[in-house]
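Hey team,

Filing this mostly as a record. A colleague (T.K.) asked me to run one chain through the structure pipeline before their review meeting, and I want the input and output archived in the tracker in case anyone asks later how it was produced. No errors, nothing strange. Just documentation.

Input sequence:
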Amino acid sequence: MTDYYELRHTVGFEETNMVGNVYYVNYVRWQGRCREMFLLEKAPAVLEDIRGDLKLYTLRVECEYFAEITGFDELSIRMRLEQLTQTQLQFTFDYVHLHPDGERLVARGRQRIACMRGPNNATAPARVPEALLEALRPYTVASVLNGKGA
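Output structure:
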């Protein structure tokens, strides 16, 4: 078993720029897609909670690029829980090019999420739902589990 949630992706031409490499905004899109698929596959109870009054606000997104990728490259987007507070989560995303010659880290990203509840005109911070914490446990950086991730 791995210590990350993985989303596999094949780069399409529509995700590249005129030069032929992947346009930077797609890395952020892939972070969102990875997070969404994690919820669908591993935390469906949280999706039900979102249909109620839970809101997951993205506070910060970043991505650092190490190497270029192009159309039809195979990627593994690997998500881990890096930090946890009572109301917020921070994820890391490793973008790994899956090449026949071996894996190569091409980018690393982060996302900070705040849990909120209430109507849109009166939301307030809320504790991270227990169902989300439980679903994330296998994908959590060891320092978070040891109480050092906040």
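Quick notes for T.K.: Residues 25-42 form the longest helix (18 residues). The chain is about 25% helix and 40% strand.
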